[in-house]
Design goal:
Elements: E1 2-5, H1 8-13, E2 15-16, H2 22-34, H3 43-51, H4 53-69, H5 89-97, H6 101-117, H7 135-152, H8 156-184, E3 190-193, E4 196-199, E5 205-208, E6 215-219, E7 227-228, E8 237-241, H9 244-254, H10 260-264, H11 266-274, E9 279-280, H12 281-287, H13 292-304, E10 308-313, E11 316-321, H14 323-332
Parallel strand pairs: 1-5, 2-6, 6-8
Antiparallel strand pairs: 1-4, 3-4, 7-8, 9-11, 10-11
Helix pairs in contact: 2-7, 4-7, 5-7, 8-9, 9-14, 12-13
InterPro entries: Metal_resp_trans_reg, WH-like_DNA-bd_sf, WH_DNA-bd_sf
Protein name: Transcriptional regulator
Length: 336
Amino acid sequence: MLRIHFTTEDIARTTLTTTIDPLWEVLLSRFSLTGRERPLFLQPWMARLRSRPDLLTTVRPAVAYLTDLAPLGPYFPDFLTPAESAAGLEAGIDAVRATSLRRLRDELAQLSETNRRHGRATPSWLAGLTDSRGGKLAALTAALREYHRAAVGSHDDLIRMSVENDVALRVKALLAGGVEALFRGFEPLMRWRHPVLEVSYAVDRDLHLRGRGLRLVPSYFCHGDPVSLANEDLPPVLVYPIAPESRWESITAADPAGPLADLMGATRAAVLVTLRRSVSTTQLATQLYTSIASMSRHTKTLRQAGLITSTRSGPALLHNLTPLGWKLLDGSQGGS
């Protein structure tokens, strides 16, 4: 858990960013692109990438760099996501290229130590980033720029609409009840226990804002827990996954005639249709001619996407559509 400690001054200086941060989206989309589990809401994005071999070719150099620089795990170097990126991609790229050699050495040493503790080798090429001539760092930033163009910028219609939907929800809470109401609206990802914001997080740590406030940044590609910087002396930021309903509304708006099966796969679409009434995992597996283990995986994915709920009733696990699941199902079929 991450515990963020606020003073009265911190609450007054907390801000909500109304757009994505381009370099955070580069990093987080790479995690989604190469991770073992891809969230259901990213399937349209993945389908677009797969349909464009030129885009897949474009992202490969940055994926190779980031696979070594930002492995899936508890640490990645903060210089990859500078505060300047809030002003746009080029400002962020310039900040990455201007990273001091001392900071590069310190953060790469921390990455190497983290790799050692987790039994991973640190690639030798990373030492080239600290070469005073800057050639390797220039190659990295060029790859990041091209990756953003192909994997983020080319999908602005999906991403921007989703984020705008989410920001509208957050601003409504902020206007109605101030920053503390904004925090409460993030439950269960975060819990406001004045003066501490408790955040579901990969590691246990405390962050003392010390009057600097907190910058909240919505992310299309973040899923699961929010993300922050490792170095608490840097400007505090918390990148959070936007709400499931914001994602699905943008996907269906972008392609209102698109069949549900094309959006999420035939089996998961069939699960949603079947769940017009409460059904157990075993019943779903029987009705859809698949194994219980496979059905458990599908229902877990739909639950994480906010489309169904699952409750225990004796030995059975019963599944039901959420309001968002009903909306998506009825919208794809022209109403019930």
